[in-house]
Amino acid sequence: MATIILSHDVKDFAAWKPHYDGDSPRREGAGFKQLAVGTDASNPNKVYMIWQGDPKVLEKMLQDPELGAKMKEAGVISKPEVIVINS
After folding, report:
1. Is 30:60 a contact under the CB 8 Å cutoff?
2. Which range of residues forms the domain containing residue 22?
3. Domain containing 14 — which CATH number?
4. Which tens digits make up the pLDDT trace of 40-77?
5. DSSP labels, 19-61
């Protein structure tokens, strides 16, 4: 199992967060465990999520057009950046 750090920019963190929280069944169903979620200390609209899970599953999940539409609706304004830490 790997630790995964995802980040992307959002229009408004407070507006984005309920959308993110509401999508937790998708993440849990894909086997991801959330370790942390929050914003950059110097940019409140740069979001970081830290998960444990399978990077290959994440890659497939991020290619899902339905998820892309939900992210756009939630106010995501950049492509996700992904860092995988193998332990």
Report:
1. no
2. 2-86
3. 3.30.70.100
4. 999 999 999 999 999 999 999 999 999 999 999 999 99
5. HHHHTHHHHHHTT-EEEEEEEETTEEEEEEEEEEE-HHHHHHH
